[in-house]
């Protein structure tokens, strides 16, 4: 089966600019996750979707981050405006059901804010 | 709230030597535990998982992990390390719940393999 697709792989922007990341999960996976991985840290969950509804966005900085999954398939994560501390790898993952058997991760988007 | 601690930030082993990566978790109920590996520039790949039953679980690439409830640990082991095992390893605990099922990661252990 095809894996989780993410684009772009790399992005460099200046602070205060906006940026968007795209994710296409494994076909049939109802649950989609966005994680932020800062260098030297473990991935941190930003937002979780079940189909096209938000299940958990408690750690999403909502003043600058937004995400949507309009048709319950692919998803977009946006940052506007970006700050230096947003430099990180943004990982998308998907799972079938509740995710109890583990998630499948994409290769990530490495964002550098200068 | 659940949490995971990986006490070793960096570990260096010689190729062919045995490996043990430590993981301690904090979770109120029976934990669902995972080990993932991340090679440079790649996403996370699932190595193995523990739900219940046999406390010694086998995974891919010759890795195994042992769940010890009394020590709140889930250490990853490999009898003989290969140079291709150099990567970052993450332990994670899964917590099902009404507020959203969540996979919480430790900070990772960077493994270097000396030839």
Fold and architecture overview:
The complex is a heterodimer of chains A (114) and B (115). Chain A is mainly beta and 114 residues long. Chain A has one domain (5-113): Immunoglobulins (Immunoglobulin-like, Sandwich). Chain A has no helices and 11 strands. Chain A has strands at residues 5-7, 10-13, 19-24, 31-37, 44-50, 53-56, 65-68, 75-79, 88-95, 104-105, 109-113. In chain A, strand 4 (31-37) and strand 5 (44-50) form a beta hairpin. Chain A is globular and about 40 Å long. In chain A, 38% of the residues are buried. With 115 residues, chain B is mainly beta. Chain B has one domain (3-114): Immunoglobulin-like (Sandwich), CATH 2.60.40.10. Chain B has strands spanning 3-5, 10-14, 19-21, 24-26, 32-38, 44-50, 56-58, 64-68, 73-78, 87-95, 102-105, 109-114. In chain B, a hairpin with a 6-residue loop joins strand 10 (87-95) and strand 11 (102-105). Chain A binds chain B through residues 4, 31, 33, 40-45, 48, 55-56, 58, 91, 93, 98-108, 110, and chain B through 4, 32, 34, 36, 41-46, 49, 51, 90, 92, 94, 96, 99-108.
Task: Give me the secondary-structure topology.
The complex is a heterodimer of chains A (114) and B (115).
Chain A: E1 5-7, E2 10-13, E3 19-24, E4 31-37, E5 44-50, E6 53-56, E7 65-68, E8 75-79, E9 88-95, E10 104-105, E11 109-113
Parallel strand pairs in A: 2-11
Antiparallel strand pairs in A: 1-3, 3-8, 4-5, 4-9, 5-6, 7-8, 9-10, 9-11
Chain B: E1 3-5, E2 10-14, E3 19-21, E4 24-26, E5 32-38, E6 44-50, E7 56-58, E8 64-68, E9 73-78, E10 87-95, E11 102-105, E12 109-114
Parallel strand pairs in B: 2-12
Antiparallel strand pairs in B: 1-4, 3-9, 5-6, 5-10, 7-8, 8-9, 10-11, 10-12
């Amino acid at each position: 089966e095809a894996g989780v697709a993410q684009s772009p792989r790399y992005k460099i922007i200046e602070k205060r600019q906006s940026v968007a990341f795209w994710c296409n999960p494994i076909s049939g996976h109802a649950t989609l996750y966005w994680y932020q991985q800062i260098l030297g840290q473990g991935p941190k969950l930003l937002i979780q979707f079940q189909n096209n509804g938000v299940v958990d966005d408690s750690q999403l900085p909502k003043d600058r981050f937004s995400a949507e999954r309009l048709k319950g398939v692919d998803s977009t994560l946006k940052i506007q405006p970006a700050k230096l501390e947003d430099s990180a790898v943004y990982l998308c993952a998907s799972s079938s059901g509740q995710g109890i058997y583990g998630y499948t991760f994409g290769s990530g988007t490495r964002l550098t804010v200068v | 709230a659940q949490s995971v601690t990986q006490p070793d930030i960096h570990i260096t082993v010689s190729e062919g030597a045995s490996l043990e990566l430590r993981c301690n978790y904090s979770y109120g109920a029976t934990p669902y535990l995972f080990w993932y590996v991340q090679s440079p520039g790649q996403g996370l790949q699932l190595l193995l998982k523990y739900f219940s039953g046999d406390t010694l679980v086998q995974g891919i690439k010759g890795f195994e992990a042992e769940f010890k409830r009394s020590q709140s640990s889930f250490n990853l082991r490999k009898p003989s390390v290969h140079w291709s095992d150099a990567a970052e390893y993450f332990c994670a605990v899964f917590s099902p719940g009404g507020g959203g099922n969540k996979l919480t990661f430790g900070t990772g252990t960077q493994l270097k393999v000396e030839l």
